[in-house]
């Protein structure tokens, strides 16, 4: 019998806090064969990411200690080695070449001061004997492989110039650059829209077929597990509770915990809330909103702009959720920042609670900021690393609430309990929370000043399905209690269906289809909406794997010469309240 590529036995990982030691992983054992994909699933804090970081001994940099176990890595033609016993110089030689990792949060894996091209090229320069020019040429090919449009331009950009989904694709390109034997993928498609996710999963499968590459795939998306996994390892509280081939696990899960995990998975078609009454005046009115970002001058010194948002109009009422969907770079997050006045529009108008906010300075805008709060896409980047959890949650109260420190701490404790974080975590710092726990901190912070509107930018994308279900229920309960309105920005169509009264579909900065959720998602009229829906992963491993989606290279560029005026794109009403961009109708 052929030895597995990776054989983990009895892994124990501990963290020390003062004199106390906490076990995050408790005697975990599993193996991965060449060309096999093993999915590691479980709730946030179950030990999935700790396991991934331990295999490359990166957990030691985060205060963790591998207190027991072995991880034998057996490449063809080479003697097996225990990764936990290797000297650092030999381990560094393996990292990035034989074993590579895609991290959950791309901004923590990317250097903000280096261009995208230089960061991908660095992998070639470290592990292969190539010239700087050849390394850059290969980097551009990898950018093309992960379906980033305009690869030559991306090569020269910095991570901060890219959307969250684009940054994740760069991180994936870095990980795949040296064609590793083992790819450890920690939530690699969390930040990606469904079409790009489908392309990335197919890219990973292609490399597996070509190289015999093994994949340890850590995810909370059971649709992705059904799509890509051969076997599934289920973790709870640091222990393995179940392991089975993917079809067997979905068809007949043995453990109660596994059954609960699968039952919490949102499925497209489960139903949506009915549209709210339109009698009340909108809390938010957006008219003809456009945003253009200048970019470096091109050939012959011609100035150009990225048309990030183009002529966007919609309204949002108390107690209503408008889901905003579309691919990475479609303008969703920029729209969210515009309506919150985190950036100023190039054209158009935003009325917040009956007041036009264009032209308001920071002092004039401050009272209105309590009415509109944002939950950001990247929880780690939006949390101050030197503040304790109660200080992070109560930051808005310090500005708007007029409460003293003790009152803010008490409010923070109550809010953390509401989003599933015990008050025993009040004094922890951001790095001591898992990715999903950090996102819950962000949700608690947004709720602290009892706003009227919340812009939720991928607010549950980092959460495992069971915690996600609880948080979505919490958001809906708060909406019923307080009449909260949500602009819910997401790439998860099943989640959007569950919470949204209406859905707006964005493509190239424009809304191309908008209407009641059931009408848009189950009777889509625009071809782009149909393409998005066709790419949604389904939590059913018996379905044919792999879905055909149009490559991103065919999407037109949003870059135009300065002064370019975009053509008007009228909308046509195709059903009550359901509007479609006229040029998309057939």
UniProtKB/TrEMBL annotation:
Gene3D superfamilies: P-loop containing nucleotide triphosphate hydrolases
Top-rank lineage group of the source organism: Bacteria
SUPFAM superfamilies: P-loop containing nucleoside triphosphate hydrolases (SSF52540)
GO BP, one annotated term: peptide transport
Cited Pfam families: ABC_tran, oligo_HPY
GO molecular function: ATP binding; ATP hydrolysis activity
Subcellular location field: Cell inner membrane; Membrane
Signal peptide: none
Segments forming domain ABC transporter: 6-262, 284-533
Entry keywords, A to Z: ATP-binding, Cell inner membrane, Cell membrane, Hydrolase, Membrane, Nucleotide-binding, Repeat, Translocase, Transport
Entry's family note: Belongs to the ABC transporter superfamily. Glutathione importer (TC 3.A.1.5.11) family.
Subunit field text: The complex is composed of two ATP-binding proteins (GsiA), two transmembrane proteins (GsiC and GsiD) and a solute-binding protein (GsiB).
UniProt protein name: Glutathione import ATP-binding protein GsiA
Natural source organism: Xylophilus rhododendri
């Amino acid at each position: 019998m052929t030895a597995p590529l990776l054989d983990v036995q009895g892994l124990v990982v501990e963290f020390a806090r003062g004199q106390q030691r906490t076990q995050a992983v408790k005697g975990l054992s599993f193996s991965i064969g060449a060309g096999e994909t093993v999915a590691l699933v479980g709730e946030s804090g179950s030990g999935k990411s700790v396991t991934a970081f331990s295999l490359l001994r990166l957990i030691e940099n985060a205060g963790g200690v591998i207190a027991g176990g072995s991880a034998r890595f057996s490449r063809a033609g080479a003697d097996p080695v225990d990764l936990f016993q290797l000297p650092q110089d030999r381990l560094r030689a393996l990292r990035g070449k034989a074993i590579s990792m895609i991290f959950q949060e791309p901004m923590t894996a990317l250097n903000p001061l280096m261009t995208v091209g230089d960061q991908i090229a660095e992998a070639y320069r470290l592990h292969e004997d190539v010239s700087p020019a050849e390394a850059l040429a290969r980097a551009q090919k990898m950018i093309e492989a992960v379906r980033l449009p305009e690869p030559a331009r991306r090569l020269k950009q910095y991570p901060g110039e890219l959307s969250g989904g684009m940054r994740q694709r760069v991180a994936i390109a870095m990980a795949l650059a040296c064609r590793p034997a083992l790819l450890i993928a920690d939530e690699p498609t969390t930040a990606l829209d469904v079409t790009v996710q489908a392309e990335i999963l197919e890219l990973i499968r292609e490399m597996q077929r070509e190289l015999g590459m093994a994949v340890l795939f850590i995810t909370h998306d059971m649709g992705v597990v059904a799509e890509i996994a051969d076997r599934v390892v289920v973790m709870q509280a640091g222990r393995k509770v179940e392991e089975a081939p993917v079809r067997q696990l979905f068809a007949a899960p043995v453990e109660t915990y596994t059954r609960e995990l699968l039952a919490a998975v949102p499925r497209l078609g489960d139903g949506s809330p009915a549209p709210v009454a339109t009698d009340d005046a909108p809390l938010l009115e957006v008219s003809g909103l456009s945003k253009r970002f200048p970019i470096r001058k091109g050939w012959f010194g011609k100035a150009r702009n990225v048309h990030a948002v183009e002529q966007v109009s919609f309204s949002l009422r108390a107690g209503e959720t408008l889901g905003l969907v579309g691919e990475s770079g479609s303008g969703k997050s920029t729209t969210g920042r515009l309506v919150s006045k985190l950036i100023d529009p190039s054209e158009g108008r935003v009325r917040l609670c009956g007041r036009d906010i264009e032209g308001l300075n920071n002092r004039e805008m401050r009272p209105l900021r309590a009415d509109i709060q944002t939950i950001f896409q990247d929880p780690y980047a939006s949390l101050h690393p030197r503040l304790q959890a109660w200080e992070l949650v109560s930051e808005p109260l310090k500005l708007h609430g007029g409460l003293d420190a003790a009152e803010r701490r008490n409010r923070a404790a109550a809010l953390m309990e509401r989003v599933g974080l015990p008050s025993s975590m009040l004094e922890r710092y951001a790095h001591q929370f898992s990715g999903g726990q950090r996102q819950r901190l962000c949700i608690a912070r947004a709720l602290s000043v009892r706003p009227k509107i919340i812009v939720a930018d991928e607010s549950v994308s980092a959460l495992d399905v069971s915690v996600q279900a609880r948080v979505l229920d919490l958001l809906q309960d708060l909406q019923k209690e307080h009449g909260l309105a949500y602009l819910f920005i997401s790439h998860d169509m099943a989640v959007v269906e569950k919470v949204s009264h209406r859905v707006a579909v964005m493509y190239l900065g424009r809304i191309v289809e908008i209407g009641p959720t059931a009408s848009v998602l189950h009777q889509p009229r625009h071809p782009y909406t149909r393409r998005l829906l066709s790419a949604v992963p389904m939590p059913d491993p018996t379905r044919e794997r792999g879905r055909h989606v149009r490559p991103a290279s065919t999407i037109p560029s949003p870059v135009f010469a300065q002064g370019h005026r975009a053509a008007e794109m009228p909308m046509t009403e195709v059903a009550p309240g359901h509007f479609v961009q006229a040029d998309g109708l057939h």
